[in-house]
Amino acid sequence: MRELAGRNAVVTGASRGIGRHIAVALAARGVHLVLSARSEPELERTAAAARARGVRATVVAADLAHPDGAAQLVERSLDEAGAIDLLVNNAGVQCLGRFARTDLDTLLDAVHLNLISVLQLTRLLLPGMLERGRGHVVSIGSMTGKAGVAYNVAYSTTKFGVVGMTQALRAEYHGSGLGFSVVIPGIVRGDGLAAWLQDVPGLRARTLVGTTTPARVAQATVRAIQRDLPEIVVNPTPVRPLLALAALAPRAVEPIPRIIGVPEMYRRALAYRDHESRA
Question: Would residue 164 count as lying in a domain?
Fold first, then answer.
């Protein structure tokens, strides 16, 4: 979908972080917005930034971890915009922790928000896109959805699901006029889900793993929509060859995260978080 001006988009998780940057990047290209998250005051700040670029921006507070959240958001979005051309599945929660010690409700909430709501929103908005013969769904994934990461079991599981969903939808709806993309950031510094990691001392692995910014993720999202790209990895380090090698020789690549200290990085982060929560 090369021409974005005048299109209508739903952006979830738009109150802060990557979602706010994506919303503003779309607004700069003339896209009218329905912005969703749980925090209405923060959504209003995003909406104000979008309106300053001359587009309509509607705020719809919704909890996508709730079973009815996706359906309610779609109903409100269609009422407000009339038709939705773009869906940005960005809302998510990291759920960092030791898997065996994570309670079931926490796991289920993460699965519902990160994956089930993505499936629901996409399924509910597809019929209108198919009827018009145009539309694009872009989902924000994660490097943990390409290579499983210690202490991120729930997050990795759901992000693998998002990658698989995108691939399957591209195959099923090829030639329909619809596009599907997944944008895969590494660690997002400054304003992402893992921004708090920057406060943890001694996380040297971040230099080797690589970091990116919310602005770069937003730019990649717009590029994915305009060029109908299947997948964009947003990371300055040369991870694509490693990902390709992992598909061919998983055992050969498996030690690399341990060698560069990724599990130790998250162990330190957990210890720091637990210490801070007790302080």
Answer: yes
**Residue range of the domain that includes 49:** 8-278
State the catalytic residue, choosing from 155, 173, 266, 272.
155
Residue 3 included in any domain: no
- Please count the structural domains in the chain: 1
| pLDDT above 50 (res 278) | no
Q: Assess whether 266 carries a catalytic annotation.
A: no
Q: Is residue 259 part of a domain?
A: yes
Residue 34 near residue 261 (C-beta atoms within 8 A): no
Burial of 225 (0-12, 13-18, 19+ CB in 10 A): buried
Summarised one tens digit per residue, pLDDT across range 61-119 is: 999 999 999 999 999 999 999 999 999 999 999 888 999 999 999 999 999 999 999 99
The reply to whether 98 falls in a domain is: yes
Kindly report each contact of residues 51-56 with a partner whose C-beta sits within 8 Å and lies 24 or more positions away, as own/partner.
51/27, 53/24, 53/27, 53/28, 54/27, 54/30, 55/27, 55/30, 55/31, 56/32
Residue 130 sits in a domain of what CATH number?
A: 3.40.50.720
Give 187-237 pLDDT, tens digit per residue: 887 665 555 566 665 555 455 566 789 999 999 999 999 999 999 999 877
